[in-house]
Amino acid sequence: MSAIEDDDAQARIYLDDAVAYDALISAEDADGQLVHALRDVSFAGAKVADIGAGTARLTRLLCAESAHVDLIDRAGPMLEVGRARLGDRSNFTIHQADARSLPLADAAYDVAMAGWVFGHFRHWMPEGWQDEVRTALGEMRRILSPGGALIVIETLGTGHTTPRRHQALDEYFALLETEGLERSWIRTDYVFQDVETAASITGRFFGEAFAERVRSEHWARVPECTGIWRTTR
Fold first, then answer.
1. Mean pLDDT (the chain, rounded)
2. What is residue 205's three-state secondary structure?
3. In the predicted structure, residue 1 carries a pLDDT above the cut 60
4. How far is the C-alpha of 104 from the C-alpha of 124, rounded, in Å?
5. What is the rounded distance in angstroms from the CA atom of residue 23 to the CA atom of residue 4?
6. pTM of the model
7. All domains of the chain, ordered by start, with CATH?
8. What φ, ψ does residue 148 adopt, rounded to 5°?
9. Please, what is the angle between helix 167-178 and helix 129-143, to 10°?
10. Mean pLDDT of all residues in 66-76
11. How big is the CA angle at 19 (ends 13 and 21), to the nearest 5 degrees?
12. Which of 33, 45, 51, 151 can bridge 113 by disulfide, Cβ–Cβ 3.0-4.6 Å?
């Protein structure tokens, strides 16, 4: 399968297999490293924009005490799973919209976060991806109040114990840094009940070759590195 076909297959998962995707990411960051890494960001009483919210994993993880969360994603099926996963919470609004044109007011948010979103631009929009990323970052800055926190989260390698090198994504990461975002990284390992469950669930998203690696490595805990880029308005 070509890289383009791989990207198309991944895009279809967001539309056609949101429940399976949620099963994957529900096993991620089993040690709670992301919450620890963002412990200095004040979510209590905050107005938060979760951009590329998917099935609401960041909202569920970080925003229990927020005043209100606006979740934005292009994939309606992902948002519907997210709505169900948020349960009885009422302090959120869902928007099916593009990250490059947010349906949100200027200077109205304390936190704008985009988890595992803009890295796709590098592959899905090979011509002009830099401008598309800058547009999305500009939208995040537009909606933030002065001093608000801008956070971008991206995978630095599933199946890796230290950040991998990846030429295309490294170009994207460098762009984030030229835009004034500072990078740190953490481990966000997946933990599954057994090796075969790990292979089955990860293979559905990362491919059969990855599933075979999980089996050969006997991974019920699948290593992963995640980058966090941050700045303030």
1. 93
2. helix
3. no
4. 25
5. 25
6. 0.92
7. 3-232 (3.40.50.150)
8. -65, 155
9. 40
10. 96
11. 50
12. 151
